[in-house]
Design brief:
About 20% of the residues lie in helices and about 20% in strands. It is α/β, with parallel strands linked by helices. Strands 3, 5, 6 and 7 form a four-stranded mixed beta sheet that branches. Strands 1-4-2 form a three-stranded antiparallel beta sheet. The termini are far apart.
Length: about 170
């Protein structure tokens, strides 16, 4: 998969996510292996889905099927929930992709698996296990990213189950 193909995929996902956010008026969460790091020369998909650069042109049939009225959610993006969780509750490993390399060989390690939340509501940082509106932000009423963690892909008997590590985000939806 090339960076151009990943950029197109991110543009399609962003279009569909915006449509779902508009039609359902609810949160949109996208998770998965995006094969696009947050930085670097092949980070185009990450940059598109998080709104750092504009989407690329997409198929007009798809665009028409998932269109929203002009001006509706015009600045809609997906937020990387690692950045939305309180720093002290971000834990585990950094890399989500490790390959099937020999132990200690981190040459291919990267962060390409993500949990995103739609920007159609505020993602409020919270240290509480149960959500409550922070008094400092009366508009913070929809969603809370309370923790983020990258786990291990080793099984109990030491076998590497995957070349990707699991990514967890604890969120509260109201």
């Amino acid at each position: 998969q090339s960076d151009d193909e990943r950029r197109l995929a991110a543009s399609l996902m962003l279009t569909r996510a915006r449509y779902e956010a508009y039609t359902t008026k609810g949160p949109v969460i996208i998770t998965g292996d995006f094969n696009s790091p947050a930085t670097g020369t092949d980070s185009g998909a990450y940059q598109i889905i998080t709104g750092q650069i504009p989407p690329v042109a997409i198929n007009q049939t798809f665009a028409a099927k998932y269109a929203v009225p002009d001006g509706a959610l015009s600045n809609y993006t997906m937020l990387d929930l690692k950045a939305e969780a309180p720093r002290e509750l971000v834990s585990g490993q950094y890399a989500t992709y490790t390959g099937f390399n020999a132990p200690g060989d981190a040459s291919v390690y990267s962060r390409i698996d993500f949990v995103y939340g739609g920007s159609n509501g505020k993602w409020c940082m919270s240290l509480r296990s149960s959500w409550r509106r922070p008094s400092s932000d009366p508009d913070c009423v929809h969603r809370t990213a309370t923790a983020y963690r990258v786990g291990s892909s080793l099984t109990d008997d030491g076998v590497l189950a995957s070349d990707h590590r699991p990514v967890f985000a604890d969120i509260t939806l109201e």
